[in-house]
Fold:
Amino acid sequence: MREPIVNETVSDANQNTEEPGTDESPTEGAGSEPAEITFDEQFYPARPKALRPIARRRQFFAARPSLEFDGLNSTYVDWLRNQSMLGDANTMARQLSGQASMWQNSYARPNPRAAVERAPVWFTAYPLSFITKDGQSFLSALGDPELWDAFSRIGIRGLHTGPVKLAGGIRGWSQTPSVDGHFDRISMAIDPAFGTEEEFRQMCEVANEHGGTVIDDIVPGHTGKGADFRLAEMNFRDYPGIYHMVDIPEEDWHLLPDVPEGEDSVNISPDAEQALQKAGYIIGRLQRVIFYEPGVKETNWSATKPIIDTTGKTRRWVYLHYFKSGQPSINWLDPTFAGMRLVVGDALHSLLDLGTGALRLDANGFLGVEKSAEEEPGWSEGHPLSEAANQLIGSMIRKVGGFSFQELNLTIDDIKAQSESGPDLSYDFITRPAYHYAFVTGDTEFLRLTLRLSMEIGVDQASLVHALQNHDELTYELLHFAAGHRDDIFELGGEELTGAEVAEKVQDTLRERLTGENGPYNALFTTNGIACTTVSFIMATLGIRDPDAITKEEEARVLDAHVLLSMYNALQPGVFALSGWDLTGITALDRETVKELTSQGDTRWINRGAHDLMGTSPDAKTSLAGMARARSLYGPLPEQLKDPESYARRLQRILTVREESGIATSTLLDVPDVSNRGLLVLVNQLADGALQVTVLNFSDQDIAGSIQSPHLPPGASVHDLFSRENVGQVDDLHSFFLELPAFQGTALLLKDPVVEDEATE
Structure:
């Protein structure tokens, strides 16, 4: 049990203009105490001082009488108030307001290279799949000095924890489980299933001692159905202002569907959505329905059951949920600005109370919704309000010395717009499906197209997080082509195709090659992409249909391919991110082992198998959270670090070259045409002005060919950064000759002959 912490001024509990967290707590023995401010320069070496405010998060364990769970039960209302995120956010704000430490950092504009320098390589953790020692928590395991010693040896300096705060919902006195991998947050408190706040802070300290940074998550787009949502349903003070929710008068309840017994809400049908729109209650249909499932989620709107509010009035609400029904969307332009206060408070709690250095913004592209012309879907993607809200969030994070990144799967134009003044970094949804397509087809044309489009639109590659596998599916929505530029003409494979046709061609190819007969262990995930691990993606591409019968020779080919994909993500400007599934070479789970989790269509659980990163529990069948253990081709890190040919040691060599040469903060100058369709060439300019060239062979054949770009200076020698040998010279045609085996790559440095002559003299 957490100790109750009170850092607030007592005020009149009957003043409805005040939020919970400002009035006297019903907790026995709680009193008024001054705000506690501590300074810890170890966590924040760049700041003169670090303010350590403490969120309220008091636990009010009321007697649980047999009363209705509604607004007339003051005991129940007080119990909810003492768990609300909005109340904690208010407490945080009062401690930080007026402090000199809030003015020590620049914040107006994103600074991607500063963020990359601080944490150029990230390990992406997933709490539910992390196998720990017996009795050890997830957070304690992530704070283990031995793990950070291994990370340091490999070259990993950032740790993205994934969401570890309480998530799910509240029904009555009980908490309900998360419906979306803990991205339906309901509290600023750490979920005890993952550890304690002290273990979180210890993890941050150990990371700092190893020159690392811990990256946490906030969710600006939605919460779970926790205390804040239940108070909103009861029309309590500012709480309805957190969400996009509309009070439907009783005379129009006939427009709403009945809520099934045992449920608290029901998704409305397209017909009901249209009727409510015509009646003037909601904006109606949006641009797309994420997680669409017939009979389950056909629209983005749900209706609550009748609820008695704090005045005794019975209400029914219709609320927006861009994702699942248990994830009510946050309203960023309500007059109370309650949603904004909640999200910013959560961010400040992570940075200044827990001690993280950065935050991931989840679902931050869907923060504005607006009515469109008649019969047209509402404007819900690429909305200026999302840009404004992201600027506010990103600026606040920078203002306290942190950095942020967004996982925003929209068009390249939208990613560019959202990055102008918002988060410092963006997840690379631009080239991620394209490099998968390049590997599947052995042809880099589409990858080169996406890289060039990114350059033309003005997206800096150094502002992107280039990733291998994470907890989600292999995404291939390709919204730049399928949505924003669906009617534009592109050239691909000798044909002129519309954007929509390009997207369809790529998607059809990936579906055919990676699922069904070719990859029976992989699965489609709705219309978004394919559920698979990096290893199972590679196996399907290589024609390995039975993972249990894989040979040593096939394992070696998988490893070579995995290293190639790692090279693509690492040997270019920006952050390189990978997961435990990558580091240990995890295969997809058999569907039978997770059939309960996938029963409602979320096939991604097959790519979330449990893994033992440090080899501490070789006999464990599941993770602490109960996730089934998956097969590992590479083994734990301590064993790999003893083998110079293991994935971890080969990755170590890649990251050493990346670090020593400064590739992470370089600038992409050119993606030239190639002499063989399996080749990819990236010409980067390093911070000192030198040219670096990454060359990758995405095909299963050895390649010998010419590397040409107008940026290559004639006479320059070509130095291989891995072998540390000169391997050629640029001729008068701005080209040089290179040989690369199948699934291999290298990083080259061009040395100007004039500079070399001067050095010799």
